[in-house]
Design goal:
The chain is mainly alpha-helical. 48% of the residues lie in helices and 11% in strands. β2 and β3 form a beta hairpin.
């Protein structure tokens, strides 16, 4: 709260809480469904957006710009407080994100090794902290 006094964390909409590329089904470049709703909760939808973008970045998918444009257009809502929510999303896999690499391999999305995803996670956090410091 001290770092982001203006961030509203009181939203109460249905969110997925495990929204990552592996929980999406696609056909001919179109999203068919978001699956694996075993941990739904009430919360801020931008948290799911940040979680998806963070996870996609760890895997090396450069989708942020197009994802955010599509999200805003589809939802009719502007993106707000994204840096805050991305920083929260990076904490979810701590202390060791290495086991997430297996999920990508099992789904045939991308071959990654634990050290690859650890390095990507560390670099992503470093980039977020740089953004935070430049906005402070």
């Amino acid at each position: 709260r001290l770092l982001w006094p203006g961030v509203d964390t009181t939203a109460s909409q249905l969110i997925h809480t495990d929204f990552w590329p592996g929980n999406t089904l696609w056909k001919n470049g179109k999203l068919l469904a978001i699956v694996d709703w075993e941990w739904p909760a009430l919360g801020e939808p931008i948290g799911d957006v940040a979680y998806f973008l963070s996870d996609a970045a760890y895997a090396g998918f450069d989708v942020e710009k197009s994802f955010l444009e599509t999200y805003e257009r589809s939802s009719g809502k502007p993106i707000h407080d994204l840096l805050f929510w991305k920083m929260m999303a990076t904490a979810i896999p701590m202390p060791d994100i290495g086991n997430w690499a297996q999920g990508y391999a099992e789904l045939g999305i991308r071959t990654m090794y634990p050290d690859d995803i650890r390095r990507a996670h560390t670099n992503y956090i470093r980039d977020l902290l740089t953004q935070f410091n430049s906005n402070a």
